[in-house]
């Protein structure tokens, strides 16, 4: 990271910014991705920049859903490609899922660059460059999808997804897992499992959970999914933000 020492208190956050700037320079991340990251950072600050207990619970349910899925697909946009490319490829390999480049501000050039970027990390199956289907209810560019990929998936992992597109996937009968630092976003409220955590923490957590839970019996995984309540988890995520903020404030008052 240019000239910032690892001892800097905001090193992790600065490193994340740098990765996105590099993503923009390489034509992987859209300029809007920088704005989205700014919003994410502010929300992460409210959480205390840690994986909270409700986020951990969501990550466990997400791992169970992905392990149980018959046709899971991991969707990658410009922000995920810049921040967690290696982890997305690793998770895909661990659960035997393809990746699909699925971007909101679509240009064919950026789709190709993201796909190449994922392949440079060893991705074997990357959909998205030649979409041959569309998600009902979305305009042409936003709805592009691939048969064998997102279009046919039963479980879709879509970190940092737009609300409209998330709703459209749910309407198709898919189970949707998202990562979104905003517990109040439409995506957060619509998804089957919403992980309110930074994608840079959520991905490593998911990879270890999938490894850990891979040996569990199917009935146990089903029980984790059945007892999961996304609304309650979102409420606890909001409460985690509120209590973190008031704890922080009381340390100033002392
Ligand atoms: O590459 P593209 O064209 O697909 O564009 C990707 C972005 C993210 C720009 C696009 O999907 C977009 O505009 O997303 P939104 O509607 O801004 O939503 C992104 C959500 O992700 C917001 O609720 C942010 O708070 C949240 N977010 C941003 N950064 C992170 C995050 N959540 C988790 N980890 C982050 N690092």
Automatic annotation (TrEMBL):
GO molecular-function term, one example from the UniProt record: ATP binding
Pfam (any one): PPS_PS
Keywords: ATP-binding, Coenzyme A biosynthesis, Ligase, Nucleotide-binding
Pathway the protein acts in: Cofactor biosynthesis; coenzyme A biosynthesis
InterPro entries per UniProt: PPS/PS, PPS/PS_sf
Keyword Aminoacyl-tRNA synthetase: no
E.C. code: 6.3.2.36
Assembly: Homodimer.
Family: Belongs to the archaeal phosphopantothenate synthetase family.
Described function: Catalyzes the condensation of (R)-4-phosphopantoate and beta-alanine to 4'-phosphopantothenate in the CoA biosynthesis pathway.
Name recorded for this polypeptide: 4-phosphopantoate--beta-alanine ligase
Species for this entry: Methanothrix harundinacea (strain 6Ac) (Methanosaeta harundinacea)
Organism phylogeny: Archaea, Methanobacteriati, Methanobacteriota, Stenosarchaea group, Methanomicrobia
